[in-house]
Structures are given as structure tokens and as C-alpha cells.
Amino acid sequence: MATSGVYSPTTAPNPKSSWCLVPSDHLDKTRFAVKLIEVVLSFVAFILEEVVSSCLSCTALYFFEFVSCTAFLFTLLLLILLSTTLHTKVGITCWPSLDFFYTAGIAVLLFISSCVFASDNGNTNPERAAVAFGFLALVAFVADLALIWKCLGLPWQRGGNTQTSNGGPAQPTPEAEHLNTPVSAPE
């Protein structure tokens, strides 16, 4: 075909056509690894909690179960959304804020549930291991928060994203003519 010679030298493959977008605008390789560690540690904490066969006070166990399962499932969902093109189909535009507040919320819940479960359990090996992995998952979530803060800053300090002009914020251009200028009458 005669046209293939014209188009082939200038056509380049699209590097963003891959299903995995790491690194991307929302997730770099380091944060991807930390999020993967969060998923694994919260999953192990959940599995170890499920191995517990009997409990003295089951409220602490059930609360820890809920938090570790939530941390596992929702962090896995967030990891899948941010590392693929699926995040463009959801309709959410504030991914950095959502990621920060979700990570902070899960870190607080993991801290509370791990402390409560550590103080109120039967002191069996599976319970102690579950608490240990709960605290390890907490450390991973806090490390993720530190990385978010270091790389992106705090979400509430971003303000309005104004366009920059020559390195500084764009200044509004003054009007050339005022609409209500009085017309001087001839005398």
C-alpha cells in the first residue's frame, strides 16, 4: 500500500496504552510498593484474627476484624483504581485528597483497634500475631501518609490552582475600557 510508507515513520506507539500506569500522576513506584505492603499486612492481620478460635471479650476481636478487613479490601480497591486506567472511569477528580483522607482514617482506625485488641485478648499466639500485624499495617499507613505529605503536600493547603505567569501567580488583566464611562457633552 502506498500510504503505509508515509505514515509508518511518524507513527509511534502510545506508551500510556498499558493497563498498569505506575508511575502515574496519582501513584509513583514507591507509593505503589507501600500501598502493596499495606494490602498484604492488613490481609495477614485479618487472616490471623480469623484463626482465633475462642475469645474472652469478642467485641475487641470483632472491631479489629472489621478494621483489618476494611483496610485490606478498600486499600486493594484504591490500589487497583490508582494503578490502572479505571480511575478515569469513576468520575472522581480529587484523587490526592481522597487518598490522603482515606489513608489517615484507616491509620487512626488501625491504631484504635490494635490498641483495644492488644489490651483485651486471651493472649494466645494468633491474637498476639494479629495485633503485631495490625501495628505493622499501621506503620505502613503512616509511612504512606508521610510520602503523600512529602510528595504532594497536604490537600487543604493546595488552594485554588491558579495558572502561573513567568514563574508567579497569574494576575488578572485590567479592563481596557470601562462600560459605564460618562460621555462628555459638547459645550
UniProtKB/TrEMBL annotation:
The keyword Iron belongs to this UniProt entry's keyword annotation: no
Location(s), subcellular: Membrane
Database matches in Pfam families: MARVEL
Region Disordered, residue ranges: 162-187
InterPro entries (alphabetical): Marvel (IPR008253), MARVEL-CKLF_proteins (IPR050578)
Transmembrane domains' residue ranges: 32-48, 60-80, 100-118, 130-149
UniProt domain MARVEL: residue ranges: 26-153
Keyword annotations: Membrane, Transmembrane, Transmembrane helix
Domain of life (superkingdom): Eukaryota
Topology of this chain in the membrane: Multi-pass membrane protein
Keyword Membrane included in the entry's annotation: yes
Chief location bin: membrane
A GO-annotated cellular component: membrane
Protein's recorded name: MARVEL domain-containing protein
Lineage, highest ranks first: Eukaryota, Metazoa, Chordata, Craniata, Vertebrata
